[in-house]
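Appendix B, example 12.
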Amino acid sequence: MSLLKYSNSIEKKIHVNSDIYIESFQKKIQGKLSYFETRSEIQNDTIKFKRILRILALSGKNKIDGMRILREGEIRIEKIDSNRIRISWEVQLDTIIFLSLTIGLLIGLLVGFVSSMSGISLITGILFAIIIALLFSISIYFIGCSFIKSKIDELVETSI
């Protein structure tokens, strides 16, 4: 797994016509992706999806839409032979990197402000704030990655 994308694949043995199975799988995936409010299109054996962002108001549901992190990716299904297929998927993680760095920076600034108010020396306060910011950024990144991984894996597994 690289820092900017998550990818995985599985192979499955099927007992029906592979073309019918692939078509059925693609329809199931597109239906489930519509639940996440994504725009998806089928190009040969690949389903490409991208989240539709509506930023029309600063309250209610539209305020939450900007924070959803399953943004874009692709799901590919290919025939290995007459009764086996491979399903592979890839999701971009650039949004979770941005969110984790932003939240880490805000928490680091807050810790720096609190430490400067409590009488800690300037150098110690800055170092403490940087360490806390890095720890929060890294932990939020890995929590977000595990969340995205579980969501996309679940999406594919329930469509098989």
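The chain has a mean pLDDT of 83. The chain has one domain: 5-159.
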